[in-house]
Amino acid sequence: MILCITHSQDTYTIDLVRQHLERLGHDSFRLNSDEFGTRYRLRYRLDALGPQYQLEHGHTLIDAADITGVWYRKLWDLRVPPSLDPAYVPSFVKEYGTALRIFLDSLDVPWINRIDLDHAICGNKFLQLSAAQAANMHTPRTLISNHAEDAIRFFDELQGDVVVKLHGALSKTMDGRGDFFPTTRLRKEDVPMLESLSACPMILQEHIPKERELRVVYVDGEFFTGSLQAPGSTDWRATTAIIQWESFTLPDVEREKISHLMQLLGLSFGAIDMILEPDGRYVFLEVNPQGEWGMLQKYLGFPIAETIAEKLVQKITHA
């Protein structure tokens, strides 16, 4: 059985991957991480035969010993029962979070991606940029700071050609709906507001001129690239214009650099954001190990779900 870790609101991509796993002859189980504290019964035992890890979901028994591989798609915050006394919420979240980690830590099988690596890389854009530099990719000049003086100096050095962003995405949808802080151009009149950095450190980055924005989906050596004609906004998720994805072919040299980057990071999967500058230079922005790709499969017909399923089965076969 292959375990697919996601959340209760996930649609389309999760179904496509599971359908293809079934066509390949592999059963799968969908674990909705946000429902772990409300819809799963856990039973972990230690006796003379060693540890045993079991979950029950309805009439289905999931034994860790029967899991052959894991597709880690998403991990959402635990849903808290509305009837729970608020005083017990911290304990509920802490203990169920620990119980989920115990189960996942027991799975010594092939993963796409390993959850520890995924979280470490997803939460550290500076690591991503440093690895991209090591892979000979072009990267924007970057500052992470909680101090206004540093930010103002950086703004002046780049003659005001600066964008600001957060480390983590607040939106959880593939079209950017919901609350999120998009990459935003820093204007001269915004500079006095940098005094508030002490309350929230931010990333300041050199603004990169755009010919096209690229979303490169990497699946264990395979590439699927969608492109957008550069909109007026500095973040395509924030534009009100109709988004029209187009298929794009990356040059071999850029594919080699991305492959090197992913090997350095230890990732089998990632959604990589890049910019193609008007002069033809490719600039790396970030890699999201849980990045969205459903729009590329839906609108461009890329077989991304099928490739994820096939690559995971290959890992299981050769484990």
Topology:
Blueprint: E1 2-6, H1 13-23, E2 28-32, H2 36-39, E3 41-47, E4 50-57, E5 60-63, E6 69-72, H3 89-105, E7 111-112, H4 115-122, H5 125-134, E8 142-145, H6 148-157, E9 162-165, E10 184-185, E11 202-206, E12 212-219, E13 222-229, E14 246-247, H7 252-265, E15 269-276, E16 282-288, H8 294-300, H9 304-317
Helix pairs in contact: 1-9, 5-7
Describe this structure in words.
This protein is an alpha+beta fold. The chain folds into 3 domains: 2-109, 3-Layer(aba) Sandwich (Rossmann fold); 114-137 and 209-319, ATP-grasp fold, B domain (D-amino Acid Aminotransferase, Chain A, domain 1); 141-207, Dna Ligase, domain 1. The chain contains 9 helices and 16 strands. It has helices at 13-23, 36-39, 89-105, 115-122, 125-134, 148-157, 252-265, 294-300, 304-317; strands at 2-6, 28-32, 41-47, 50-57, 60-63, 69-72, 111-112, 142-145, 162-165, 184-185, 202-206, 212-219, 222-229, 246-247, 269-276, 282-288. The protein has a 5-stranded antiparallel β-sheet with strand order 14-13-12-15-16, sandwiched between helices. A 4-stranded parallel β-sheet has the order 2-1-6-7, with helices on one face. A hairpin with a 2-residue loop joins strand 12 (212-219) and strand 13 (222-229). The longest helix has 17 residues, at 89-105.
- Largest beta-sheet details: 5 strands, antiparallel
CATH architecture type of the largest domain:
2-Layer Sandwich
Q: Can you write the helix and strand succession as a string?
A: EHEHEEEEHEHHEHEEEEEEHEEHH
The count of helical stretches stands at 9
Task: State the fourth-level CATH superfamily of the largest domain.
Answer: ATP-grasp fold, B domain
Q: Specify the CATH class of the largest domain.
A: Alpha Beta
**Count of domains:** 3
- State the distance separating the first and last CA atoms: 15 Å
**What would you report as the Rg, rounded to the nearest angstrom?**
21 Å
Q: Can you list the strand order of the major beta sheet? A: 14-13-12-15-16
Q: Assign the CATH topology of the largest domain.
A: D-amino Acid Aminotransferase, Chain A, domain 1
The 3D shape can be described as globular
Regions with pLDDT < 50 over 5+ consecutive residues?
170-180
- Helical content stands at 25-40%
Strands, total number: 16
Classification by helices and strands:
alpha+beta
Strand content: 25-35%
Mean pLDDT: 90
